[in-house]
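Q: I'm building a small set of examples for a reading group on sequence design. Run inverse folding on the following structure and report the sequence directly after it, with nothing in between.
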C-alpha cells in the first residue's frame, strides 16, 4: 500500500520556525533596548552624584573660607572671568547674566569654574566643576547709617557633573546665605 505525501508537515514546521524566529528577534530587540536604558540611567546617576558632590564641596568651601567682609571683598571683585564673581556689584545695578551657558558642557573650563579637591567621581570621564556667584545682600539697608548693616550675603552655586562618556551631564544649583562680620 502506497501513500502519497503532500508535504503538509514540512510547511507547518517551516511556519512554526518562522514564528519562533520572529519571537526571538523581538525578544533580542527588547533586551538591547533595556540594556541601553539601563546604561543611560547609570550615566545620569553618575553625573548627578558627581555634580551633587561638587555642589556640597563648594558650599563647604564658601562657608569655611568666606568668614569676613574683608575676605569676601578680596575673593568677589566682580570681574566677569573670575571663578567667584559678583552678579550684582552695586545695589542699583541690574543682575548680570552668567558668563557661561551652564547647560553647555563645552563652556565649563579652567578660568570660569573650579574642580573640587575631594569629590570622588569613580567612572566619570571628566571631573565635576562648580561656579560660585555673589548675587547681593538680602533685605533693606538700615535707614539710620549709625546702625550696623547686618544683612546677609547671598550666593548662588552651580555645579556640573558628567557621566562616563562626557556626553551625559547634570547641572545642579543651590543658594546659600550667610552673615559676614
Amino acid at each position: 500500500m502506497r501513500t502519497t505525501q503532500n508535504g503538509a508537515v514540512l510547511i507547518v514546521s517551516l511556519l512554526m520556525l518562522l514564528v519562533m524566529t520572529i519571537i526571538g528577534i523581538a525578544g533580542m530587540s527588547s533586551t538591547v533596548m533595556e540594556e541601553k536604558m539601563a546604561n543611560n540611567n547609570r550615566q545620569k546617576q553618575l553625573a548627578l552624584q558627581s555634580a551633587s558632590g561638587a555642589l556640597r564641596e563648594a558650599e563647604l568651601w564658601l562657608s569655611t573660607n568666606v568668614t569676613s567682609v574683608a575676605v569676601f571683598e578680596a575673593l568677589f571683585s566682580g570681574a566677569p572671568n573670575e571663578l567667584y564673581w559678583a552678579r550684582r556689584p552695586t545695589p542699583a545695578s541690574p543682575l548680570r547674566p552668567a558668563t557661561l551657558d551652564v547647560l553647555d558642557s563645552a563652556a565649563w573650563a579652567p578660568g570660569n569654574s573650579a574642580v573640587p579637591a575631594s569629590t570622588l567621581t569613580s567612572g566619570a570621564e571628566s571631573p565635576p566643576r562648580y561656579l560660585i556667584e555673589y548675587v547681593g545682600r538680602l533685605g533693606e539697608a538700615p535707614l539710620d547709617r549709625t546702625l550696623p548693616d547686618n544683612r546677609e550675603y547671598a550666593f548662588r552655586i552651580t555645579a556640573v557633573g558628567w557621566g562616563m562618556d562626557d556626553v551625559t551631564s547634570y547641572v545642579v544649583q543651590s543658594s546659600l546665605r550667610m552673615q559676614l562680620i
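The chain is about 35% helix and 20% strand.
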